[in-house]
Amino acid sequence: MRWHAGRGRVPGVEAAGAVRTECLVTAALELDGVSRAFAGRPALEGFTLRVEPGEVVAIIGLNGAGKTTAMRILVGRLTADRGTARVLGTDPAHLPRAASLRFGHVVDTPLVYGELTVRENLRCAGRLHGFSAIGAARAAEQAMSRFELEPWADVRGRALSQGNRQRVGIAGAVLHRPMALVLDEPTSALDPRGVVIVRELVRELAVNSCAVLVSSHHLDEVARIADRIAVVHAGRVIGSLGPGETNLERRFFAMALADDESRAATGSVRDGRP
Ligand SMILES: Nc1ncnc2c1ncn2[C@@H]1O[C@H](COP(=O)(O)OP(=O)(O)OP(=O)(O)O)[C@@H](O)[C@H]1O
């Protein structure tokens, strides 16, 4: 069953043996006019972004632009002060089990238990994503192979290098083949081989109708992975760039500068911004 943009059916997690469910969706991942402040200081102001099934959208922005805050709202870790967040058509703060079984994310620290080995961590992730014990064991072996983690299969999470922890975290977030995926700077600690593994995996998931939102500071990497690049600045999406465009870096800075100038002209520059 394919997953269609617009109102349509959401496929079940067959590998997990879950019952197929139907629900109405508008976009796989959606933030609509979302605002959020911390101690009165705005982090997001009217942040709007949609990711359709089969689409990979990258968000780029300067430090403090609001990328992680937007992702935290999408994964239900923060609530919006205003506006709407939707994941697979539902409120991420109250995600029903059927939707959570189709959702994967790594935002902030990868979920890797220090006391468990890599194999145990991945089996645990499989169980959390609805697999039977046998299914989780099989999925863990496949994930270790895919992420080239076999040499560390019996190493405890606390003894892993930062890059291998990131591999385990991402492997655990995708081993159930999600239909919506949120990854915050997924390649920040990865070696070149790990970067390729994540890139190929993201593209493969998208081919199978998964909607992927990924943040990064590396324009070169983003250009290779994304269908669309959303530029985040001062808590909003201020425009988009095509991954095939030339001079991405120069265009990114030009957009941010133009936004600053326009906000300064209208007196709406964010309070307290450096
Ligand atoms: N828990 C919090 N308490 C107070 N302020 C916060 C909190 N989380 C984020 N902020 C503020 O919100 C703004 C946006 O932060 P956010 O982490 O979303 O930016 P970012 O684009 O992900 O930055 P970076 O590229 O540095 O990771 C910043 O000014 C940050 O200081």
From TrEMBL:
Keyword ATP-binding: yes
Coiled coil: none
SMART domains: AAA
Any single Gene Ontology cellular-component annotation: plasma membrane
Keywords assigned by UniProt, alphabetized: Antibiotic resistance, ATP-binding, Nucleotide-binding, Transport
Any one of the GO BP annotations: response to antibiotic
GO molecular function: ATP binding; ATP hydrolysis activity
Compartment list: Cell membrane
PROSITE patterns found in the cross-reference section: ABC_TRANSPORTER_1, ABC_TRANSPORTER_2
InterPro entries linked to this entry: AAA+_ATPase, ABC_transporter-like_ATP-bd, ABC_transporter-like_CS, ABC_transporter_ATP-binding, P-loop_NTPase
Pfam families: ABC_tran
Residue ranges of every copy of the ABC transporter domain listed in the record: 29-259
PANTHER family named in the record: ABC TRANSPORTER ATP-BINDING PROTEIN, ABC TRANSPORTER ATP-BINDING PROTEIN NATA
Protein name: ABC transporter ATP-binding protein
Species whose genome carries this gene: Kribbella pittospori
